Amino acid sequence: MAKLEQYRTYVERILQEYSRYKPAYSEVEVQVMVDKEHDYYQLNRVGWNKDQRIHGCVLHLDIKEGKIWIQYDGTEDGIADDLLALGVPKEDIVLAFHPPYKRPYTGFAMG
Questions:
Q1: Any idea where the domains of the chain sit in the sequence?
Q2: What are phi and psi of 86, to 5 degrees?
Q3: Residue 52 exposed, middle or buried by CB count within 10 Å (0-12, 13-18, 19+)
């Protein structure tokens, strides 16, 4: 249970850090969405750039079966490196955006 709470803290901390980066060119709100009951975590951008609607997910992570599942990563450097820097072992990180048959070659957990 302590590991689960630690992973929740790590994921939320990373999302909060990424939420500080706001586009300077438009009226876009950065939203951190945390559902600790179901262990769903997202970072979204919502707003307008002149007359163009902006709405999309930047990061989507889940915690399932004691592992952090990276469902979507729209960051430049990759959130897996941030998790590794915090001490999360590779065997507890699933790159879920890769199909299951490719996961054995990533060096991370298969799921």
A1: 2-105
A2: -85, -5
A3: exposed
Per-residue pLDDT tens digits for 84-99: 999 999 999 999 999 9
Tell me the pTM: 0.93
**Neighbour-count burial of 8, counting CB atoms closer than 10 A to its CB (0-12 exposed, 13-18 middle, 19+ buried):** middle
CATH architecture of the domain with range 2-105: 2-Layer Sandwich (3.30)
Query: Shortest CA distance to 82 belongs to which of 97, 66, 70?
Result: 70
Rounded Cα distance between 28 and 14, Å, is 20
- Residue 110: DSSP 8-state: -
Structure tokens at 3: 């590991």
